[in-house]
Amino acid sequence: MNPLAVYVHIPFCTVKCGYCDFNAYAGLDGLKRSYRDALLAEIAGRSTDLSRHTVTSIAFGGGTPGEQPAEDLIAVIDAIRDSTGIAPDAEISLEVNPGTTVEPYLRALQSAGVNRVSIGAQSFDAQELQFLDRIHSVQAIGATVLSARRANIESVNIDLIFGLPGQTPRQWEANLEHALGLGVDHVSAYALTVEEGTRLGHRVSAGEVEMPSEDILADLYGIATARLEQAGFHQYEISNWAATGHQSRHNRTYWEYGEYLGLGAGAHGFFEEERYENIAHPRQYITAALAGPPGVIAEAYHPDRATAVIDFLALRLRLLEGFPLAEFKRRFGLDIDTVFGEPLGRALDAGLLNYHDRRLALSQSGHLLHGEVVAQCLAHLRSHPGVVDGAAAAAR
Ligand code: SF4
C-alpha cells in the first residue's frame, strides 16, 4: 500500500487578519455543520482512492480548525479510517489559535489520534499582535501550550512571524525567548509577506506602512537560526526548526514532492500525478460536495515535465538536506546539469548552493534566496523551451 498524506481544510475564522490571503472567512460559522457533512461526502467519494493507500498523516489546517467542534474533526478522522488504513504511527495534526482551544477539547481529539498541535502564536508582543489583527493575548499562548501538554499531545509547534514594520532585533529575540521558555518541540518562523488584495497590501501601497529591507530580514533570520540552534533545535527546512523526533512528517511530504489528498474548500492535492484545487468558497463547496463529490474540484491538470521538474526543485531545495542528484535522474530520466546547469552553476559560484556527496542543497546564505534560485531556474527553462524534452530525448 502506498503511503499518502491527507490535508483537510477548515476555512472558518473569527476575524480575517489583515495580512492573510489564505482561503479563510470570518462570519460564516453558521456553515460549520453542513461543512462537516460536505467533508464526509467528499471522503465517501474518495473511498476507492483512499483504499489503495495507507494514510501516514492527516493535517487539519485553515482557517482555524481548532474552532471546529471536536466531534466534527473526529468524524472526519473516523471516515478516513473507515475508508482505508491509517498507519499506527501516523501524524495527525491540528492548527489552533491561542485562547480558543481548551484542554477537554484537545483531550477528546488526542483520544481520536491527534498527536501534534500547531499554535498560531505569531508574536509575544501585544503591539505586534495588534498590528497583525490577532485577537489573542500573550498569556493565551502559554495557556494553550499548557492545555496541549495536559492533553498529552506529543508534539507542540509554535508559529512565529518576523519582519514586522519597525521590529527590532531585540523585539524578535524576545519573541524567540518566550517561545523557547514555553518548552515547545518545534518552531516555525516565517517572514511577514505582503500579499496583494489584503489590508496590509493596501496599507503598504498607500505608503502608510513601510516594510523592512532585505538586510534587516536577513539579520532577523540569522538571529532565529543562531538562537534556535543554540537551544538544541535542528533546522530542517528554511522556516522550520525541530527538537529531535519532532519534525513535521506531514509537511515533509510536501517538501519531498510526495503525494497528498487535499479535502475541503480550496484545498490543493497532488494525487496519482494529478494536481487539483477544490472550489474555494465554503458555500459553493458544500453545495457541490453534497450534490456529488467529483464536482468539488475546480481545476485539475497533469503537470507537464517542465512544471514537474521546477516543482521538484523548488520543494526539495526547501529542505536543508537538499536532494541526491540520482533521485532527480530516477524521477525524470534527466541529468540535472543538462537541464539547469547554467543557473545552478551561477548559484554555486555565488555561494547560494552546496554540492556534496552528489547531493544539492541550499547553503546557509542561500536560505533566504531560495525564491531567487528557483526563479533563475524557471527563467532558464522559459528561455530554453524544450530543454527538458530535448534532454529527455537525448537520454533515451
Ligand atoms: S487566523 Fe490564520 S487563517 Fe484565519 S485569518 Fe488569521 S492568519 Fe488567516
What would your notes on this structure say?
- The chain is 43% helix and 23% strand.
- It is α/β, with parallel strands linked by helices and 396 residues long.
- The strands form four sheets. It has a nine-stranded mixed sheet, with helices on both faces. It has a three-stranded antiparallel sheet with strand order 12-13-14, with no helix packed on it. A three-stranded antiparallel sheet has the order 15-17-16.
- The chain has two domains: 2-255, Aldolase class I (TIM Barrel); 305-395, Arc Repressor Mutant, subunit A.
- The protein has 16 helices and 17 strands.
- The mean pLDDT is 95.
- The longest helix is centred in the middle third of the chain and has 17 residues, at 214-230.
- Strand 4, helix 3 (70-83) and strand 5 (85-96) form a beta-alpha-beta unit.
- Bound molecules: iron/sulfur cluster.
- The site of iron/sulfur cluster (SF4) has 11 residues, from loops.
